[in-house]
Amino acid sequence: MSTLSIATAPGFARPVDDAQAVFRAVLQALSRPGMFVCLPALPPSLARDEMTQGMLALALALCDQDSPLWLDSAADSPQTRHHLRFHCASPFAAAPEQAAFAFISRPESMPRLSAFHAGRADFPDRSATLVIRVDCSAEAPESEVMEVTGPGVKGNERGIWQAFRLGGLPAWFWTDWRDNQALYPLGVDVIFVESANSGQGAPSVRILGLPRTARVRKAVNAKEGSLCM
């Protein structure tokens, strides 16, 4: 399909203010691992597309002409590419290891974490950030309550762990995460995004950040936290 025949969908209602607000929410999520944070603004959804409003919001807030994107086969479509080219001017990476940001709509078939760029010893900050669509409901397939500790987790210095629930991840994910965390200061960072689009009214899509410093285990004392208002 020619991009000339694809209508350009709108982005944020207030492009600068909304992008800045979403960016601050991302910083909050990554600085408070294991805590759900509500996105304060969402763009309209793309019809019949698996790039959800939450994923689109993160792309519009984080990506620009200097950040190559990689889309999994579920998120990738002519409409999505046209939308992100128009609003972000981002190039598209041909392979996961070339991406600054990866958007994954079906994590059950995603590449292993080692397939993404973990940074370099002289530039550890140039690693990939993975945006992964997940199901946060208790009924989600493969739903598990996990616990995280590390910098930013309240009570981390006293050995306290923060619980959170995610569903839909591949069986190998948390083993790969332990390997990723062991690479520090190298390693990828992850932002999990709720799978559902927002309904009518105020935005309600949540994100949860896991920086490479975070240690994760299966939950022992499951008390989940949220920074949503």
Description:
With 229 residues, the chain is α/β, with parallel strands linked by helices. The chain has helices spanning 15-31, 53-62, 78-88, 173-182; strands spanning 35-38, 69-71, 101-104, 129-134, 144-149, 162-166, 189-194, 206-210, 215-218, 225-226. It has one domain (10-220): Rossmann fold, CATH 3.40.50.11310. Helix 3 links the parallel strand 2 and strand 3. The N and C termini lie far apart (42 Å).
The secondary structure category is: alpha/beta
Lateral strand order in the biggest sheet: 2-3-4-7-8-1-10
Distance between the termini: 42 Å
Largest sheet properties = 7 strands, mixed
Low-confidence stretches: none
Q: How large is the radius of gyration? A: 17 Å
Q: Please tally the β strands and state the result.
A: 10
Q: What's the total helix number?
A: 4
The top-level CATH class is Alpha Beta
The CATH architecture designation is 3-Layer(aba) Sandwich
Instruction: Quote the beta fraction.
Output: 15-25%
Shape: globular
CATH topology: Rossmann fold
Tell me, rounded to a whole number, the average pLDDT.
89
Q: Could you name the CATH homologous superfamily?
A: Bacterial phosphonate metabolism protein PhnH
Helix-strand string: HEHEHEEEEHEEEE
What is the percent of helical residues? 10-25%
